[in-house]
Amino acid sequence: MGTYYSSEKNIQILIALLKMHNIRKVITSPGGTNMMLNASLMYDGSFEIYSSVDERSAAYIACGMAEESGEPVMITCTGATASRNYMPGLTEAYYRKLPILVVTGTQDIRRLGNLYDQVIDRTIQAKDIVTFSTYIPTVRDEKDAESATLKINQAISALTLNGGGPSHINLETIYSKDLSVKELPPVKTIHRIDYNDKLPELPQGKIAIFIGSHHSFNEKLTMCIDAFCENHNAVVFCDHTSGYKGKFRQVDALLNTKNASCLHNIRLLIHLGEISGNHFNVGPRAQEVWRVCEDGQLRDRYGKLSYVFHMDDLHFFESYTHVNIQPGTSFLLACQKEYQELYASLPEFPLSNIWMAKQLAHRLPENSVIHFGILTSLRSWNFFEISKSINSACNVGGFGTDGMLSSLLGASLVHPQKLYFGIVGDLAFFYDMNVLGNRHFGNNLRILLVNNGKGCEFTHHLNPGHIFEENVNPYIAAAGHNGNQSHTLVRNYAQSLDIDYMAADTKEEFLKHLDKFIDAKITKSCIFEVFTHDIDENEALKLITSTGKANDLKAELKDCVKNAIGEKGVATLKRLLK
Ligand SMILES: Cc1ncc(C[n+]2csc(CCOP(=O)(O)OP(=O)(O)O)c2C)c(N)n1
Ligand SMILES: [Mg+2]
Description:
- By secondary structure, this protein is an alpha/beta fold.
- Helix content is 35%, strand content 17%.
- The strands form 3 sheets. The protein has a 7-stranded parallel sheet. Strands 2-1-3-4-6-5 form a 6-stranded parallel sheet, with helices on both faces. Strands 15-14-16-17-19-18 form a 6-stranded parallel sheet, sandwiched between helices.
- Helix 6 (219-232) links the parallel strand 8 and strand 9.
- Helix 1 (9-20) packs parallel to helix 5, helix 3 packs parallel to helix 4 and helix 6 packs parallel to helix 8 (313-320).
- Residues 373-376, 399-402, 425-428, 450, 452, 454-457 line the site of thiamine diphosphate.
């Protein structure tokens, strides 16, 4: 015939992954949008292909074939009403949990609703025909290819996840007539490992664990993770949302931002937990990632996922603790040493969330709890360690500025005999301040309100907002609301609610009130409002994130001079130096 694989990358990726996952049986129905897929499958030669003009019948043939063979079966059809006719067979397959991979061809779905013939809306599936559905657009760049690869892996995994069932891929085509590709591209195959599956071998090399946000760990699991680390010379990298307090804990934000050498060459990263607000984390450094999660979903946060372990954390670590051991603690010790050196060499920061975190983090009362506002507050505190007896949390699930104080109150009601600290920016505070008047508000809350008069998050050098300079203020950083750093608004509100209030405009004033703020005795709740300035907040972040390389230093020096003498001063200095 003289044709090979289609030049359409999404078709090549699909076929490569079918082969990697050992899916060989295909029932195809004729049509335009799956034509190039059919041609490519034919060229490949390793598929067992059957034809069925009637899609209703094709889906039922797949039911019989999947049941009889115990193998997944792929069915493919085109646009128009073709896929509608899959519904009876897929309903049968859904209720019998039969692994049928449904590949419907589609034209560019941007055509949908614009009077193109045969373009039907497959964006919503009936609840009981497939367990998973995904759309694979035409691959135009590397990122599209990565996304297509992940989504097809997910669709294939869904065939057997939690008992399995039919799974759907809506595969876009541009009807390319170029069928000149002789070899399939290498594709990343992501395997799911269930409880009773044979476990892959741990690779040789440096092993690290990274924990995103996670429920607190019980003692049994902590001990099991620690035994694993001891037997594999591993380290647990985490932040204040990880819940892990074991011996191998290492907060990694400072190490990462300074490019610490202990983090180089991580061969395998074992990824636990959910979304992390720790943006300076070890994830991107790893060569390969294994994820452990009871949901069994393929979630590839760092683009290097090779296995998902569909099991609880305890089962995973119990399974690996005693195999292929390479005992030691040298990795942990190297991290601890480098962290301490970096910590000791930190410069003096201006009055800012970061400076306060540095003053407070190691002085919080034992067995208390601390919650952070998203972004600035969490990031500032993630550079510093807090005692292992202190539980910590942040609303990193939805990343809202809207409910930090309410979540803190909710937590504080569970253990009235514990102290609950909250570190919160002004926009987040004012958003949620009505909860301070909730009649359940107790006497065990200590709120540090960092009032910089705006959403400082949008003004620092790592945020694109900084390019607007002063113009960031009115609408992007939402400056000037709530009395524009009023020194009476929160004071009066707090006092009217019989909540203690303290305020500071300088480091000295902050330190003067600090003992009272962290007093371990539970007497009365309080708000400690500290007024800071964006210039100082941003300078502190710049200082702590600088890697100390020549370029950074130069830029930093420039900024220091600019901060000290202002734009006009810089212009004068430049003139004088010419
Ligand atoms: C409900 C909600 N609205 C908007 C945002 C976007 N947002 C992220 S950070 C931020 C500013 C937070 O300002 P502030 O609480 O004062 O903290 P700062 O960065 O100044 O310390 C906003 C508005 C969000 N995350 N959630
Ligand atoms: Mg603010």
